[in-house]
Amino acid sequence: MAIDFALGEEQRGFLDTVDRFIARHLPPAEVRRRDREHVPPYDLLPEMGEAGLLGLPVPEALGGLGRDWRDVALVQLALGRHAYMAASIFNRVIGFGAMSLLTYGSEAQRTALVPRLAQGRLLIALALTEPEAGTDAAAIRTRAERCEGGWRITGRKTWISDAGGADYMLVAVRTAPGSTGAEGVSVLLVPPTAPGIAMTRLAKVGNNAMPSWDIGFGGAVVPADALVGAEGRGFRHLMSTLHYSRASMAATVTGCAQAAVDLALAHARERRQFGRPIGSFQVLRHRLADMQMRVDQARLAVLHLAWAIATGAECRREAAQAKVIATECLQYVTDHGMQILASAGYAAESDMQRYWRDARLYSFGEGTNEIQRDIIAKELGL
Ligand SMILES: Cc1cc2nc3c(=O)[nH]c(=O)nc-3n(C[C@H](O)[C@H](O)[C@H](O)COP(=O)(O)OP(=O)(O)OC[C@H]3O[C@@H](n4cnc5c(N)ncnc54)[C@H](O)[C@@H]3O)c2cc1C
Fold this sequence. Notes:
Layout: H1 9-25, H2 28-37, H3 45-50, H4 69-82, H5 84-104, H6 107-119, E1 124-127, E2 143-147, E3 150-161, E4 168-174, E5 185-190, E6 197-202, E7 212-222, E8 227-228, H7 234-240, H8 242-270, E9 272-273, E10 276-277, H9 282-310, H10 316-341, H11 343-346, H12 351-359, H13 369-379
Parallel strand pairs: 1-4
Antiparallel strand pairs: 2-3, 3-7, 4-5, 5-8, 6-7, 9-10
Helix pairs in contact: 1-4, 4-5, 4-8, 4-9, 5-6, 5-8, 8-9, 8-10, 8-12, 9-10, 10-12, 10-13
The structure holds flavin-adenine dinucleotide (FAD).
Flavin-adenine dinucleotide binds near residues 129, 135, 160, 370 and 371.
């Protein structure tokens, strides 16, 4: 679906900026190298900041451009299509870091940290998941007790993306002794380098440029002003920004899905068998038609959500829907993309195998699709 007709002058300008950034810093060979060598794009954050990309939804008073979420979605669709790893780190900085602080951070935290996020000089990871608290995130047991000098943290978090490269983690901890579920949880801003923290990098199937970490907290102490938001209301705070991170992820994976279709189309035009391009066989023509339709549907869901966020509408269902539609679209098109490229897609240097590996994460990362469907059903009154 071409959406050029819907773009204004400024939006075209943002997309030109993305094109220049990608051409300069993340051409295809560099994306492949970083994936192969497991090198995250943290070093490119200042360039993304300088180009104005990271400041898009940040208010002008805090050094950003003060644009609404429709512009963020367009930029993420473009980043996801050309350099998925850049879109992924953009999500961490904007969809999670900046929007969390802007939504429930104190004035002092917003003023000190958000401008640095917009400049690409700060990275904040989210540490919620624990070995025994995945889908049931409210079952977390990591606790923080008041002590001289602030809070003492004990427990363990796992599968925390980009924690090793982050300046801070927003860590969900239980601060009300004896509390259970969503009550009594708070959010603390914790530097991963604090004494008492042990980090182990996890080996995994894909998303090589987004390292994942297991983190042990053995009595790490952070100052009292590390508390973000109200004490005991941390779980609600985290839930209140989920639509931003789901919107970011949905746009990113939809961009990547379009890249997978582009690659499959190019291959179907060029590869000849039985004396004709394989794209002339009806089975592949229809498969490619289905793939492009799925991507266009995902893009509509992403833009629908972006529109809702931009206008301040309630969007719990739209966020869950966009997340499910986009992540299942990416799995669908990469699976069929592999089939169309066959051995050429299975080769280590093929972008298709990377898209296919990376795609597998997203139907359970950022809230499993089973839970998204529960949310949608609940919003439908069931
Ligand atoms: C690469 C990677 C990056 C990640 N990054 C982060 C991060 O940065 N920060 C962070 O905090 N976490 C992160 N996570 C954790 C991620 O959010 C969890 O993996 C996810 O929440 C699912 O938890 P789980 O893996 O423990 O699965 P489980 O909770 O064990 O679920 C297993 C299966 O059971 C299903 N299930 C569970 N409960 C229900 C139910 N009530 N109804 C129906 N089905 C159910 C699930 O949908 C799933 O299919 C990351 C994970 C990965 C793999």
